[in-house]
C-alpha cells in the first residue's frame, strides 16, 4: 500500500469547450465536474480515496503549473518543458516513482474525464492495484459502451481471467459507425478510457522492450533536487524524445495486458453536448451555468463566465459568453467546435 | 435661410439593440448607420446638407452629453436634467431658436433612424422649410408604408394641397394587424416618422393653445450664459413639466398640420432584424459586424464588439458579443429583446 502512487496527466489543451477553454485555461481546469469543481480537482479527489495526497503527482505543461497548483493545493505538480505525448510522460513518472520506491506501483488517470461514482471507482482502482502488483501485468480499464461512439478507441476482450477481468485480444482505433455498432452488439468490446495501473518497473520493462530509444533516457531520471531539480532533468531529456501515445508505444505491443471492466460511470466530456448530458436542467431542459439567462428556450446550454449569456427563443443550442469571446451553435454541432477555433485563429483574432 | 435650425432629439435610451446598446451607449450612438457611422452622426451629416453645423442643436440626456459631443464634434449639444418626452424638448428648443431669431424655423429629427438617400432627404427638408415658413403650418413627414407594420403610428391623409403635400385627416396610433393592412390597401395612410418642420413661433403658439401649462414656462426660456446657462435654465423648468409626446400634445390637436410624403427611404431600426435588412451580407446571407465569425450559417446577424462573436451551424439567428454580455435569439424574435433585458435586470446582473 505504501508504494502506491497516482499520476494524473493534465497536459492537454482541451479546446473542445472553447471559448470557455483556452490555451491558458484548458478543459481540465474548467468547473465541468459535479458540484462545480474542475475536472482536475475532481480527479484528485477520486485519487485521494486510494492514495494519500502527497503520493499524487500531476504532470502538466510548464506554463500551466501555476494554474494547476492553484487548483490543487498540496498536490505535487510537475511541468513538462515540451509535450511529448503519453508514453514519455508516463515513462518519466515511472522512473520517478521507482526511484522513490523500487516496488512502486501507480495508476494513470486522465485529468479531464468525468466519473461520478467515486466509491465504485475507488473499489475498482484498489482491485486494479492488487492485480497489477500480484500479476506484474499492464492493467487497463475498459468502459462498458452505452452507444456506438466513433470518437473513442475500443478494447477487444480476450480470455476471461476473473470477474470483469480479461486478457486483451486487441486495441482498436476509432471505428467507423458500422464497426462500432457490430462491436457493441458482440458484447466483447469496451471503450478505452486511458486509465491504467501497473508497477513502475513493469511499465519501464515494457517500454524498453517496445521503444528502447524512448525508455533509455527516461529510465535514467532520478528524484533529486526536489521538483525544480526533476523539472531540470526533464528539460534535458524531453525535447529529444519521440512523441507517441502509450497505446501505440506499449499497450498494443505488450503481451501482459489485462482489461478490467469498470464498475463506475465514465465520460470523456468530449463536447458541450456530452457535458450537458450530466448536468442538472431547468424545467424546460436547459442547462444554465454561471451568469446565464434562458427565455422561451428548451434543451439549451447557456454559460456566462465573466459576463451575462442571454438566450431567447432557442432550442438545443449552446450559448457561451466568456470575457472576450462568444460561441453559439447547435448542441449537436458542438463536437466540431475546433472548426470555429481554427476560423477565429485564421482571422488573427488571437482569442482562440 | 439664415433663420433655419435643426433640432436632433437624442435623449432616447434605445435598448432594442441590447447588449450592444446600454443606458450609457444607447442606440443612436451605435455604428448602425451606413458606413459604420453612428445613427446620430449620420443624422447630423444629413442635417448639414440643409443648415450650417453651428445651427444644429442636439438635445440629449445630461449624462449622455459627453458621449454625444465626442460623437459629433462642433455641434451644439445640450443636456436635459430629466427626460420629459418630446413636447417639452421641442418646446424648449423652440424658445431657444426664437430667442436667437424671432422668425426662426427648425426641423425636428430623431437621432436614431436610418435614411440612406441623403440627397432626397435634403431636397424634401428644404421644401418642408419653405412650406412651413410660408404657410405658418406644422409640417410632418409621412413615410410611404412598405408593409403592414404594427409598431408604428400612422397618418391618415386629408385633402391634397400640392404634390406629395396633404392636410392631415387624423393621426392614428399603432394599429392592429388587420387595420394596418386595410390602411395600406387604402393608399391614404403614411407612417409617422416623427420628423417635423415649423417656425418656432408657430410651434409655441400651437403648444400654448393645447397645453398652456407646458408652454408657459418653456416660452420664458432665454439664451443667456451660453450652453451652461441654458442648461441651468432647463434645470429650473424641466422637473415640473408634464411628460407628454409632441404627437399627443400638439399634432393631434392643432388645426394647421400638413403632411409631406417623403421621397427618401426611412427605417426606425426598431430591431436587430430591421437593421440587418439594410446591411451588406456575405455569400450565405449573413451580416457580420466587427469581430465576427460565421461558419455553416445562413441569414444570421453576428456582431462582435470588444471580443469575438462566433456562430456555427445557425440559421436566421442573432449572435451578439460585447464586453460583459452576449445575446443569442432568432432574428424574428429580436423585437422582443426588452424581455431579455428585463430578465437580466431581474437577476440583478446589472449589465443590462
Task: Compile the SSE list and pairings.
Two copies of one chain form a homodimer.
Chain A lengths: L3 E7 L28 H10 L7 E6 L3 H7 L4 E5 L4 H16 L4 E6 L7 H18 L2 E6 L10 E9 L2 E8 L4 H10 L2 E11 H11 L1 H8 L6 H12 L8 H6 L5 E5 L10 H5 L10 E9 L5 E12 L4 E6 L2 E6 L6 H10 L6
Parallel strand pairs in A: 1-2, 1-4, 2-3, 5-9, 10-11, 11-12
Antiparallel strand pairs in A: 4-8, 5-8, 6-7, 6-8, 7-9, 12-13
Could you characterize what this model shows?
The structure is a homodimer of 352-residue chains. With 352 residues, chain A is an alpha/beta fold. Helix content of chain A is 32%, strand content 27%. Chain A has 11 helices and 13 strands. In chain A, the strands form 2 sheets. In chain A, strands 5-8-6-7-9 form a 5-stranded mixed barrel. The longest helix of chain A has 18 residues. At the A-B interface, strand 10, strand 11, strand 12, strand 13 and helix 11 of A face strand 10, strand 11, strand 12, strand 13 and helix 11 of B.
Amino acid at each position: 500500500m505504501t508504494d502506491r502512487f497516482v499520476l494524473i496527466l493534465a497536459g492537454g489543451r482541451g479546446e473542445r469547450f472553447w471559448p470557455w477553454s483556452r490555451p491558458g485555461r484548458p478543459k481540465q481546469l474548467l468547473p465541468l465536474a459535479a458540484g462545480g469543481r474542475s475536472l482536475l480537482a475532481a480527479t484528485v479527489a477520486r485519487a485521494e480515496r486510494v492514495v494519500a495526497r502527497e503520493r499524487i503527482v500531476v504532470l502538466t505543461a510548464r506554463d500551466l503549473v501555476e494554474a494547476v497548483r492553484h487548483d490543487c493545493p498540496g498536490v505535487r505538480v510537475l511541468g513538462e518543458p515540451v509535450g511529448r505525448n503519453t508514453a514519455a510522460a508516463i515513462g518519466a513518472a515511472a522512473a520517478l516513482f521507482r526511484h522513490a520506491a523500487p516496488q512502486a506501483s501507480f495508476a494513470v488517470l486522465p485529468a479531464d474525464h468525468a466519473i461520478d461514482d467515486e466509491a465504485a471507482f475507488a473499489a475498482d482502482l484498489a482491485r486494479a492495484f492488487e492485480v497489477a502488483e500480484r500479476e506484474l501485468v499492464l492493467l487497463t480499464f475498459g468502459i462498458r459502451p452505452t452507444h456506438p461512439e466513433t470518437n473513442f478507441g475500443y478494447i477487444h476482450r480476450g480470455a476471461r481471467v476473473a470477474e470483469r477481468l480479461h486478457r486483451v485480444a486487441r486495441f482498436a482505433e476509432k471505428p467507423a459507425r458500422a464497426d462500432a455498432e457490430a462491436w457493441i452488439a458482440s458484447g466483447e468490446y469496451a471503450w478505452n478510457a486511458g486509465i491504467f495501473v501497473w508497477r513502475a518497473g513493469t511499465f519501464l520493462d515494457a517500454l524498453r522492450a517496445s521503444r528502447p530509444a524512448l525508455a533509455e533516457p527516461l529510465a535514467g531520471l532520478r528524484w533529486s533536487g526536489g521538483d525544480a531539480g526533476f523539472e531540470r532533468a526533464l528539460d534535458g531529456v524531453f525535447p529529444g524524445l519521440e512523441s507517441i501515445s502509450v497505446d501505440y508505444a506499449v499497450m498494443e505491443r505488450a503481451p501482459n495486458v489485462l482489461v478490467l471492466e469498470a464498475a463506475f460511470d465514465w465520460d470523456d466530456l468530449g463536447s458541450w453536448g456530452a457535458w450537458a448530458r450530466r448536468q442538472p436542467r431547468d424545467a424546460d431542459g436547459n442547462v444554465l451555468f454561471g451568469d446565464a439567462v434562458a427565455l422561451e428556450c428548451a434543451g439549451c446550454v447557456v454559460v456566462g463566465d465573466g459576463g451575462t449569456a442571454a438566450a431567447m427563443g432557442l432550442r438545443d443550442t449552446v450559448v457561451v459568453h466568456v470575457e472576450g469571446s462568444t460561441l453559439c451553435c447547435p448542441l449537436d454541432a458542438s463536437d466540431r467546435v475546433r472548426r470555429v477555433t481554427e476560423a477565429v485563429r485564421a482571422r488573427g483574432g488571437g482569442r482562440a
